[in-house]
Amino acid sequence: MKSFPVVCCVIVNALFLAAAGFLGGPTALALLAASFALTTIFVFWTQSAVNVACSQMQDTFAAMTSNAFTCNITGHPLLETAALREALTPHEAALKARLSRDEAMIGNIITPMAIVDEQGKLKWLNEYMVKLTENDGAPEKHVGTSFSRFFYGDSRETIAEQALRTRQKQSSKTEFDTRKGHHKYISIFSAPIVDFDGKLIGAFVSVADFTGVVLKERTITEQNSRIASGVKEATAVAESLAEAAEQMSAQIAHSTEGMEEQRARTSEVAAAIEEMNSTILEVARNAGDAAATAGQANSMAATGAGLVDKVIEVMESVSEKADGLKSEMRGLGEQAQGIGQIMQVISDIADQTNLLA
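Above: the chain's sequence. Below: its structure in token form.
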């Protein structure tokens, strides 16, 4: 309260009282009445000013509570409201800066978050919490709604209510269906909120959505299962190929042995053919010699026959010997014919030998 109006009121009342005591009579009564009236007016004026100032202060703090930060305190000739306003201005600026910074930080966090009161009803939530649960409308639309009804669509004890009940941090991994029926895998955390006096005023809730991680993990697990199955099948195929290779190696070894045996037999046949060829050549030479001998014998037989014809008349005594000689010559002719057959056989063998060669 300013001192000048009070001092003026006190001085005027003192003058009225002094004049009333000095003058006395009806004038004194009039002065006393004037002093009382002045004092009454001053008291009511002071009360009205105080009420207006208190109302303005209430409006100012209410605006701060709703983040309006509008100072409605005006100057007054009796009260020091201007000084009060100047004293509140730096605190208002500091509070505004802090709240703006906090709201900017919270607004840029993409983690779904919410704050519930001590009854478990939403006091604040960000848009990512609305997106996670796939509820309709802006975040402000759901303020005052039960967190259980907002998050799960039914009534149940939530992690926030557990934190409120135990006054301790709570966490849980769980699953839930969004309002549009999509299945989510989440980790949900909650911590109680107390004021500076230790009074419980609510709980903070944050949610980590790891649905994508779970789906990727399941995809990788399925791929690993398919890969393991493929490896198993490939191993079976490799084992079959190994068995087939062993069988093929055995068959190749057997074929190699057969080829070696065939080669040995071929060598033996070639040696036999070569020996047969040598024998045939030897037989051919012997047959040639026999043919030459037979030719000479045939020539000698013809010469002898001529001599016999010429001396037949003079060799009557040796006719029996001549008959014997004729029989021998007939045998030589048969031998010559046999030698010709042998030559034909040798010729056939030579042709077959050439074919075999």
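The radius of gyration is 71 Å.
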